[in-house]
Design goal:
heterodimer; A: mainly alpha; 0% strand; flat; B: mainly alpha; two-stranded antiparallel sheet
């Protein structure tokens, strides 16, 4: 991650154009505004008698312009005021994000409860719990308790999958 | 009047509702004690489960979590120097030094008493002012409502966390999210991209749970190396006669400050406790003791943050404008139960509203008793390691979010908003304005369009209505206030150095 020099107030520094995460976020917000504004151009228009004050696209368009305007203020502040460098995120964070991706994949294609059990186990382990027996029992027992609470007490039906089918069949 | 008083007693007269109140208070205390959770995230987490309850029980559960959770933060602040909730940040300043001196019980006693006093004081303010405000708002037309909603949104500029511009941007993003789906006035699809699930709009629960619970889980993943050291304590002590005499004026002042700050839209306990603390220091006989274990510092901060709970419910219930982050969650709860807070609710369902007032009153008494006798036990909860706690919260978040529509897309949306929330928080944005924007978005658009129908498309006619002009002036003040405050601060700083 790039380190950003501390600037004097009011000075413009082109070094800040580098791939600083904050700069990337500002760019992303501009791209978001362009994409949503373009999308709003394709909203259907209604005849004047039905439009109730303004066309359906007008209000979102106004909001997008406002977001872009506020983002331009942030961009100005980014280039002219002191910017502290962002600290690197620890590896555990990226593992957690990976865990979330895995959860989505497993729950969508295999089984929601299996995904919950795997995710709970991995997060506890990655975050530093080394008592395997404890995390294994906790990551199995807790989702089962929640399943029972929702299924039996609240009468909810969960999506079918390897484990849930064992119960439903 | 007598009828309303009887409605207020409903939470203790009805066994089922009393049990919910008791559970809500207990749950709120536990949530408040756990750093990273608190009443807002906890409320968001419990929100899907309230769908199985009747509206009154559901909102009583959420409000009791709000009252007790706000107090619970003080236990962690005093014993482990980590605020359980953002509103307890100022409590750390004197609570922990006092605990280190071996006076944790005295510090907790003052925090418990101050919180309960502030909370009860604010409920009285709520009972007195909410109906008056609702009566005034009853006369409002669409243009006035539009101006009021704009004022509520501009107040985001001066919200506790984050820069004003970032808060406003997040608020605008929240309103933009509310436009996703079928336009309610013309049925035209907006930002649906052909996805069937999006035609109904973006659901509140996936956004709320994602932005609060999942983003917090990601924040906690970056803090796994944190080690908490808990100060030992025997039992909570009630304030002594001397402490009581010494702090009474501070408690009274902070009750007023907290209630007033709470009433302001979008402000909340965090701002109230900081102002309560600084005012306690300003009026203290021993201001040099502040930061080193001043008992009046704890009283000032804790009374103010709990006094903000009742205050924040005033605009929430009377106008439908959230007074704080947690009331935004409560408002979401009311909306998903088919209730739209505002003047009409006061006319049509007084038993519901006075039931909530009563629940808040008794929640303050209950957490006082629970805190007094169980603080030592609750303090032990802080020892639950986050590596075991957060996977369980994730399981609850997933099942809760799924349960609402039995749709996996909601779970996916929750995770997406969790990641968005984390990124925004990492860069100094607050996620609270997104929720407030999402809640108020529909009101803003609807009232704007209905006003334009009344005004035949002439925007200038907004300025012919005095209440609208007054709200617009207040909005300008709200927008410029953080800038002026900064200027004033720099001016006095420069003057001091010269």
């Amino acid at each position: 991650m790039n380190k950003v020099k501390v600037l004097k107030k009011g000075r413009f520094n082109s070094a800040l154009f580098s791939l600083n995460p904050e700069f990337l976020l500002l760019l992303f917000i501009y791209l978001f505004c362009i994409a949503t504004y373009t999308s709003s151009l394709y909203f259907s228009e209604v005849p004047p008698i039905l439009m109730r004050g303004i066309q359906p696209a007008t209000f979102p368009k106004g909001l997008i312009v406002l977001i872009a305007f506020l983002n331009s203020i942030l961009t100005y502040l980014y280039f002219t005021t002191k910017t502290a460098s962002n600290k690197d995120l620890p590896r555990i964070f990226y593992k957690t994000i990976f865990g979330l991706f895995m959860f989505v994949f497993v729950s969508h294609f295999i089984d929601l409860f299996l995904a919950l059990i795997i995710f709970s186990f991995l997060i506890s382990y990655w975050w530093g719990e080394k008592n395997i027996l404890l995390i294994l029992s906790l990551s199995i027992i807790f989702p089962i308790l929640v399943f029972v609470l929702f299924e039996v007490v609240l009468g909810l039906r969960f999506p079918s999958g390897i484990l849930t089918n064992l119960y439903y069949n | 009047m007598t009828e309303n008083f009887l409605y207020m007693l409903a939470p203790i007269m009805n066994g089922k509702i009393f049990l919910i109140l008791l559970l809500g208070t207990l749950f709120g205390l536990i949530l408040g004690v756990l750093p990273g959770l608190g009443p807002t995230t906890g409320g968001a987490l419990i929100l899907p489960f309230t769908m199985t309850l009747e509206p009154l029980s559901a909102i009583i559960l959420l409000t009791s979590i709000y009252c007790a959770g706000t107090y619970g933060g003080a236990i962690t602040a005093i014993l482990i120097n980590t605020p359980g909730t953002p509103a307890a940040a100022a409590t750390c300043l004197d609570g922990y030094p006092l605990a280190q001196k071996g006076e944790a019980a005295r510090a907790l006693g003052m925090a418990t008493f101050g919180s309960a006093f502030g909370g009860i004081f604010s409920v009285i303010v709520l009972v007195l002012f909410a109906p008056i405000l609702a009566n005034i708002a009853y006369e409002f037309g669409q243009p006035e409502y539009f101006a009021l909603a704009i004022f509520g949104l501009t107040m985001l500029a001066s919200i506790g966390e984050g820069s004003p511009v970032k808060n406003l941007l997040a608020g605008a993003f929240g309103i933009l999210l509310s436009t996703v789906g079928k336009d309610i006035m013309t049925s035209v699809d907006r930002f649906t991209f052909g996805v069937g699930q999006l035609t109904e709009g973006i659901g509140f629960i996936p956004v709320v749970v994602g932005l609060f619970a999942i983003s917090e889980m990601l924040v906690q993943s970056t803090l796994t190396n944190q080690i908490f050291k808990r100060v030992a304590m025997k039992a909570v002590k009630l304030p002594t006669k001397e402490d009581f005499k010494y702090c009474f004026k501070t408690i009274l002042r902070s009750s007023g400050i907290g209630s007033f700050i709470g009433i302001l839209p979008a402000e909340g306990g965090t701002v109230a406790s900081l102002i309560g603390y600084s005012e306690a220091k300003r009026w203290s006989k021993n201001p040099n003791k502040f930061g080193k274990g001043a008992i009046d510092g704890i009283a000032g901060a804790e009374t103010a943050n709990n006094a903000a709970t009742g205050g924040a419910m005033v605009p929430t219930l009377a106008l439908g404008i959230p007074g704080s982050a947690t009331t935004a969650v409560i408002l979401t709860g009311m909306i998903i139960h088919g209730l739209r807070p505002g003047p009409d609710l006061f006319k049509e369902q007084p038993e519901f509203l006075y039931g909530i007032f009563g629940a808040m009153f008794f929640a303050n008494i209950l957490f006082f008793i629970m805190g007094f006798f169980g603080a030592k036990l609750f303090a032990r909860i802080t020892l639950i390691p986050s590596r075991l706690l957060w996977p369980m919260i994730f399981v609850l978040s997933v099942c809760g979010t799924y349960s609402l529509n039995q749709s996996f897309s909601d779970v996916l949306l929750m995770i997406i908003f969790g990641v968005i929330g984390f990124v925004l928080r990492k860069f100094g944005f607050s996620v609270v304005p997104i929720i407030i924007g999402l809640i108020l978005g529909q009101l803003v658009e609807l009232t704007l369009r209905q006003s334009l129908v009344i005004f035949d498309g002439n925007y200038l006619l907004f300025f012919t209505r005095p209440i609208v002009v007054a709200f617009f002036v207040l909005s300008v003040i709200a927008l410029t206030f953080p800038y002026l405050k900064k200027k004033k601060h720099t001016y006095f700083k420069n003057k001091k150095t010269n």
